[in-house]
Amino acid sequence: MEEAAAELLINSRGLFLPHSGDDMVVSGSYFFAASLGVPVIARRNPFLGWLSSLPSAKGIFFYQSRRDIEGFYKMGTDATSSEEILAFANAEFGKRKIELCWRMVFNSIDIKC
User: How does pLDDT run across 26-55, given as a tens digit for each residue?
Assistant: First the structure.
């Protein structure tokens, strides 16, 4: 199932997330798309708003209306390559970043790792 979803996303122009609630339901979808280098088109919510505010954020596009969505599909995401999206996702959420964060936590409570 995951492979089929990945193939669909890789061959698409982006992942459309219509959910507009404040909960984190969109985070897993975002991470799945970003791990494939696929842009995300979404309503602004606290998580994605925070994510897009990071200086190196790539591949997140917000819409307010149907016209915004139409504009996105006319323009496309050519300004952001899959490689840029992957680089951002890996730098902010990849294995090295996770290891660094856990190391900081362990060091702050004096656990040797």
Answer: 678 888 998 999 998 888 888 888 888 988
**Vertex 31 angle, CA 108 and 98, to 5°:** 20
Q: How big is the CA angle at 34 (ends 5 and 101), to the nearest 5 degrees?
A: 125
In angstroms, the first-to-last Cα distance of the chain is 37
Is residue 59 within a helix (H) or strand (E), and if so which, with residue range?
none
Report whether 43 contacts 17 (CB < 8 A).
yes
How many beta carbons lie within 10 A of that of residue 96, not counting itself? Answer: 10
Cα–Cα distance measured from residue 30 to residue 19, given in angstroms and rounded to the nearest whole number: 12
In this prediction, residue 99 carries a pLDDT of 93
Entry pTM: 0.75
CA–centroid distance for 3 within its chain = 18
Task: Give the 3-state secondary structure of residue 41.
Answer: strand
Are 63 and 69 in contact by the 8 Å Cβ rule? The answer is: yes
Q: What are phi and psi of 42, to 5 degrees?
A: -150, 165
